[in-house]
Design goal:
- With 170 residues, the chain is mainly α.
- The protein is built from 7 helices and 2 strands, in the order H-H-H-E-E-H-H-H-H.
- A hairpin with a 4-residue loop joins strand 1 and strand 2.
- Helix 1 runs antiparallel to helix 2, helix 1 runs antiparallel to helix 6 and helix 2 packs antiparallel against helix 4.
- The chain is elongated.
Length: 170
């Protein structure tokens, strides 16, 4: 059994660079496919991405995360390193409403470019491959070590969670 020392309690700037570059692959492919047909709709997509990640997700998902709830004026997580906290920290588990809002936002971000991607089969393949690589990589390398235990994707074993919480005095 791994000890709680294997949990990812702090992120480094290189973690943020890695995860954001990995996430940029499907987003860039989507933007290229949309832009081929309409710059207007690509700008709409970019605005939706920013609204989702920096408003909806940041407020309804990230504000519950232990990395967000730490002291300081910035978030130091794998996707938003040194990003300012502009929502009140909410150090309690996610509600069903938080999960629904975040899930709908993700579905919109993923589904929005499909109309244009279907018209470009190569881009569609790269888009889904990029999404799969990102999601499988997060699931394999972050979820089993993440201290955000109320996240629906967290896969830290219960015994390891209890050990970590006991060490912290929770």
């Amino acid at each position: 059994m791994q000890g709680s020392s294997t949990l990812k309690t702090h992120h480094r700037p290189v973690d943020c660079l890695y995860w954001n570059f990995l996430w940029l692959i499907p987003l860039t492919v989507a933007c290229l496919a949309i832009a081929k047909y309409s710059m207007h709709w690509m700008v709409v997509y970019v605005i939706l991405i920013f609204l989702h990640f920096f408003v909806l997700e940041y407020r309804f998902f990230c504000s519950h995360c232990p990395h967000y709830c730490r002291e300081g004026r910035t978030t130091n997580c794998m996707l938003l390193y040194r990003y300012p906290k502009y929502f009140k920290p909410r150090p309690y588990p996610l509600s069903k409403f938080d999960i629904i809002i975040t899930s709908i936002g993700f579905l919109v971000i993923i589904a929005y470019p499909l109309y244009w991607l279907i018209r470009e089969p190569f881009y569609l393949g790269v888009y889904f491959a990029g999404l799969a690589v990102f999601l499988f990589t997060v699931r394999r390398y972050e979820c089993p070590r993440c201290i955000y235990f109320s996240c629906p994707f967290n896969s830290v074993p219960e015994e390891q969670r209890r050990e970590y919480e006991k060490e912290r005095g929770d």
